[in-house]
Structure formats: structure tokens, C-alpha cells
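Good morning N.,

You mentioned wanting to compare the apo and holo forms, so I went ahead and generated the holo version with zinc ion. This is what I fed in:
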Amino acid sequence: MIELPETYVLADQINRTLIGKTIRSAVANAHPHAFAWYTGNPAGYNAKLAGKKITGSNPGTGYTCGGNTEIVCGDMLIVLSTPVKYHAPGEKLPKSHQLLLAFDDGSHMTCTVQMWGAMFCFPADENGIPEGYSVKKSPTPYEDAFDKAYFGGLRRGLKPNLSVKAFLATEQRIPGFGNGVLHDVLWNARIHPKRRLEALTDNDMEALFDSVKSTLAEMRDGGGRDTEKDLFNRKGGYRTVLSSKTLPYPCRACGGGLKREAYLGGNIYFCPSCQPL
Ligand SMILES: [Zn+2]
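and this is what came out, ligand included:
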């Protein structure tokens, strides 16, 4: 899954790079992948997309689940949960790809699945909304509607023994918030990923809210995290505090050792002294 900050970066780059290009041909499933998902038969993608012009791109926070990049091309909407790459005319294409768009100017766009990925293609109405789609729009932390009251409301009705990681990064309670952005958000709030919701004080909830807002903004404004690559295959400019890259180094706040543990389908990274359990 592409996470929230990177979908904003990708959509912005697509808007600046691909708008106005016409799709000459589309090839889906050229290198079959067990966990690549399409809408209908991938062999039909060329008929759906050839001749369409790219008219816009949105971070997938609207009418499809978070963690997607949406590309509007005329009356079709492409929804991608995979990395997306741009290749200028004459540039080499990746060896393996699950979606390839060739444009009229000789440039290309490719999607290559990592682990799993969706490359959906729907007929869309004049607002770019897929026909028959009725997913409720949830505000993202980048929107004013995602305020303290809204954040507090997400917690209502949840089991008090639920961990903070389960609260933030599962069930798409916050669209596009996944296990990648989690670590720095919790480090900035000085909260251990396994802390239970019932053990959070009002001050903790406040710190958590502030960190969700500010950490995600820093990641987006930095061009994405340095563990991820953008449309041009460049690493993001946001320096992760906690990731596989930083694990060998001391904590930036206290100088102590960082820790990695497997927890709830994925690794958690934390500083045991800054984020005591
Ligand atoms: Zn520390």
C-alpha cells in the first residue's frame, strides 16, 4: 500500500507531468502477479483506456479507500495502490510491470506490484467519481475537518484494551495511514505502539492528535519518506526517525538504542526510553 503522504506526492507529480498526455495504448498484466488486482479482465484495459487524455490526479482519499492514487482520464478513473513510475521518451522500462500506459509523446507510466496491489479502472462520471460507488468520504489528517473532536470520535466504541497501533493503523480508520508512517507519529508523541487506549491520558491523546497532524504534514511536504520512491524513482526528502534504515543508529532524542519487534502484521520500531510501555 502507498501511504497517505506519498499519495499526495504522487498525485502532485502526476498532475505536473502527465496532464494533457493521451494514452496511446494500455497493457495490463504483462507479467502476471499472484496478488495483482484488476477490475474485470485486464485484457480489456486497452479498449477502456486507449485514446483517453489524462485530466487529473488525486490522492486516493475521496471515493475509494485511502492509500490509493487516482488518475482521471476523461470518462475513466484509474485507482492504483501500487508504486507509479514515469518514464520519459526513450527511457528504459522496468523488466516487470503489471500496468503500462504508453502516451502519444513516447513517454510511459508503469505500475509494478510490491507484495500486492490494485490497478482498478472504472467508468467515472463528470466529477471523476466511479459509477455506482458509494464509499463514505472520511476526512484525512490534512483536512481541517480532521480536528480534535473528529479524532476523539474515532476512538468511540472501540475496545479499551486495543493498542495504539491497532487504533491508528488498522481498519482504515484513518484512510491511507499504515504501518509505515506509524512509527514516527508515535515517536513524536512519545507513545509506545503497544500502549492500550485505556492507558492514554488526555495529554497523551492531545500529543497523539498533534503528532498525527504535524508528522504527516512533514512527510508530505518533504516529498515523501526516504524509505519510499516517487514518480521519478527518487527517494523522498523526509528523513525517517524510525525505520529499517535508522535502526542501527541511536535515538535522535535520547541517544539510546532503537528497537524493532514484530507486532500485528508488520514490524514496529520504537525507542524504549522515549516511548515507555
Ligand atoms: Zn529515545
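Residues 43 and 274 are 52 Å apart (CA to CA).

Happy to go through it together on a call whenever suits you.

Best,
F.
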